[in-house]
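LOG
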Amino acid sequence: MNSIIQAAVSGFSQGQEEGDLLVRLRDKLTNLGVNAELRDNNSALMVHKPVPGMPVWVFVGYGGAYYSWQNAERRHPTTDVEGAANVLAEYIAR
């Protein structure tokens, strides 16, 4: 397999893993009663605040190690999905 195809396949695999992490986070947030929806082929999670205002966009960054939001100023390890959901629920409630 040539290097271009390998790079494309590798990027697809990582993107799919990041999408799976966002799906898990969305499910945990939904269980907490938080309105969250996947966007752009599961590449981002849009979390709605309980009052009118701008939603919070959540991404998987740092090589899949962290959920990040607020321009990556806030982040939580992807290995702790339940903790990330709780932190985000508190964050949007402010």
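LOG (cont.) second protein
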Amino acid sequence: MPKGVTDMNMQPVLEIIIDTIKNDYKDDIAIFVIMGSHLYQETHSKSDLDMYYIPKTKRGYDLASVFIIDGIGFDLWPISWERIEKIAKHEERIGSIVSEGRVVYYSSDDDLKRFNEMRALANDQSNPGHFIYRSRNQIKTVYQDLYFLDQASSISEVRYYAIQVIYGLTFALALLNQITIKRGRAKLLSEILNMPFVPDAFEEHYLKIFNSKDIKTIQEAIHHLVSSTQTLINDRWYTLIDHSFKDEAQGFYEELINNYNKIERAYHVNDKITSLYAAAEIDHEIDDIISHRGVSLDGLPNLLEAYDPSDLSKIYKRSREHQQKLVEILTLNHVKINVISDLEELKTFLNSRKGE
């Protein structure tokens, strides 16, 4: 073991790196940060030192390097200010490197101030709706890995894609709860269970992934985790959003009507491709705006079921029924539909919106 480097003592390594920055890169590196287990004093003989730095110049990137001391890997990782800002905005799941990282070197007061502004941004919880919106988008990213998980034929493939799904799910949960994942891996389950909002039976199904040797058991556990997390996010979204369904659906039909028109046009020119696309888009929009708001869709006919590539009259007829029923549902729920009969009425309508 090199002189000065002992179990759970990375101070000599830190000092060498910081001295190198001060002596050779003082105008090229803005911030140097450490993170991970050494911050929480939970290290062991093979604990690595997690760290990164923010370059100020192109030359600052020259310090980037990887090396091994006594069997422990080190990564001097450069991250640009632009990426730090994205991480602080929770566009990546590694938000804790900004919110929790410890600054052990800074080039100037302005650099430290800028970093602290990024830290404040990462810790800002003033807009829960923003976090839930990001959570809803994040969980969508797991479905690609979920597909590959279902196609997997070996236990190694299943385990690989199961972990990928867990990464995405836990990031979505962290966003939902406005909390960054600080530790991960062995500590991840306890972090999740200590969050305010946790999916149903999360611990039970999470542990199956690590305890089971059976492909089907792991696949089913992952599907439960995805389903219960999706349900929780949807429930929180519709609980938190202040807008009533009436407000949320305002303008919905005025845009959607064009899809019905596309189905009609597709029928007349025998365009089966546009017909199916337009019908699927109608279902998607209804699912996004209406289906989770507690609004009854009873009587709304199944549009995609009527698609017959050899006879587009079926889906065209169904689309007319569907359109009529959707208008009835919206009207019943007091959603105003702006139908303008002529140009004079259009002028009046636009003028009436002044000052809104």
